Amino acid sequence: MGMSLEGQKVIMVPYMEAHVPKYHVWMQDPALLQATGSEPLSLQEEYDMQLSWNEDPLKKTFIVLDKGMVEGKFVHGGPHVEAMVGDVNIYMNDLDDPQLAEIEIMIAEPKSRGKGLGKESVLMMMAYAVQNFGIHVFRAKIGESNGSSLSLFRKLKLPDQPNLMTLPSSFHHEALAQGNIGVGSDRAKAGGAFAVVW
Ligand SMILES: CC(C)(COP(=O)(O)OP(=O)(O)OC[C@H]1O[C@@H](n2cnc3c(N)ncnc32)[C@H](O)[C@@H]1OP(=O)(O)O)[C@@H](O)C(=O)NCCC(=O)NCCS
């Protein structure tokens, strides 16, 4: 079982088989497909995709849980489908710079938008990527018409150019400072905003 990351508003868990049916329903929505630049997949293709996310060393994904929707106590290793509201991904696919990661965020459930979950998930993923993969530059490719996503990344005070935002190498210090990751063999709050669990 992979790691889970706990923040103030979200818990980020590995993409598990049990998440696939709900994820597949989300990705039939034309608006979400357009916003994320995705192609619709069949259910079987989505199951194959879930496996590939866990096997490919050049990409990493977490399913975002809205902490306020977790029923009962959070159980590490449990899918908590009732609370799944989106996902956050990185791709280390730049041939010239293996320490550059493209980052994507989706909060698919409308009722969980506008509550800071997207922003916290992006910051936690960045801090995770710096610590675990030595990433020093992040990129987000955002459509010009995607006002909410542009606004989210601009709130992180990143320099931008049309369709592409690149974080300066100094940014990870900010992400780490805000994240203050703790690492432990049990769910351990390390006195910071979020903790790492596996
Ligand atoms: C874009 C998206 C990830 C934002 O997630 P979210 O959880 O609703 O955003 P947050 O609540 O964390 O907001 C972060 C900042 O973005 C801004 N923002 C978010 N939604 C906004 C909207 N609809 N209009 C204007 N600004 C918005 C807010 O100003 C907020 O800043 P604040 O913290 O100072 O209030 C979410 O709407 C989404 O998944 N949309 C569809 C998929 C998508 O577009 N993904 C991005 C592909 S690059």
UniProtKB/TrEMBL annotation:
InterPro entries: Acyl_CoA_acyltransferase, GNAT_dom, NAT9-like. The keyword Transmembrane helix does not apply. Residues 10-156 form the N-acetyltransferase domain. The keyword Hydrolase does not apply. GO terms for molecular function: N-acetyltransferase activity. GO terms for cellular component: cytosol. Keywords: Acyltransferase, Transferase. Belongs to the acetyltransferase family. GNAT subfamily. This is Acyl-CoA N-acyltransferases superfamily protein isoform 1. It comes from Theobroma cacao (Cacao).
